[in-house]
């Protein structure tokens, strides 16, 4: 499942971050690495941007960037 498909208040774990170039590098630098636990906090009314909580801080990313992050939903 891709991060842009996850509903708000859902916790998940990053499986893979794809893409290339500066945006990919920036996502990795901000903590979006394989195995990181994240929670989708809010999604803007039109779906862009998406506010996530990762490593204790809020990060807003665009839908296009969220499509590059593959996640698995944590079971309850």
Give a description of the structure.
The protein has helices at 21-29, 63-66; strands spanning 10-17, 37-43, 50-54, 57-61, 69-73. With 76 residues, the chain is α+β, with helices and mostly antiparallel strands. A 5-stranded antiparallel beta sheet has the order 4-3-2-1-5. Strand 3 and strand 4 (57-61) form a beta hairpin. The model has no long low-confidence stretch (mean pLDDT 91).
Please report the total strand number as a whole number: 5
Question: Radius of gyration, Cα only, in angstroms?
Answer: 11 Å
Distance between the termini: 17 Å
**Percent helix:** 10-25%
Order of helices and strands: EHEEEHE
Categorize the overall geometry.
globular
Query: Mean pLDDT, nearest integer?
Result: 91
Low-pLDDT segments: none
Strand order of the largest sheet: 4-3-2-1-5
Main structural class = alpha+beta
Q: Could you give a short account of the major beta sheet? A: 5 strands, antiparallel
Total helical elements: 2
How much beta, percentage-wise? Answer: 35-45%
Please give a quick description of this structure:
This protein has 76 residues and is α+β, with helices and mostly antiparallel strands. It is 17% helix and 39% strand.
SSE layout:
Layout: E1 10-17, H1 21-29, E2 37-43, E3 50-54, E4 57-61, H2 63-66, E5 69-73
Antiparallel strand pairs: 1-2, 1-5, 2-3, 3-4
Which tags fit this structure?
76 residues, 2 helices
């Amino acid at each position: 499942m891709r991060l842009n498909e996850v509903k708000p208040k859902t916790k998940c774990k990053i499986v893979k971050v794809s893409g290339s170039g500066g945006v990919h590098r920036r996502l990795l630098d901000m903590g979006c690495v394989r195995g990181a636990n994240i929670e989708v906090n809010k999604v803007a009314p039109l779906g862009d941007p998406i506010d996530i909580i990762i490593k204790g801080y809020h990060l807003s990313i665009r839908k296009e960037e969220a499509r590059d992050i593959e996640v698995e939903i944590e079971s309850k």
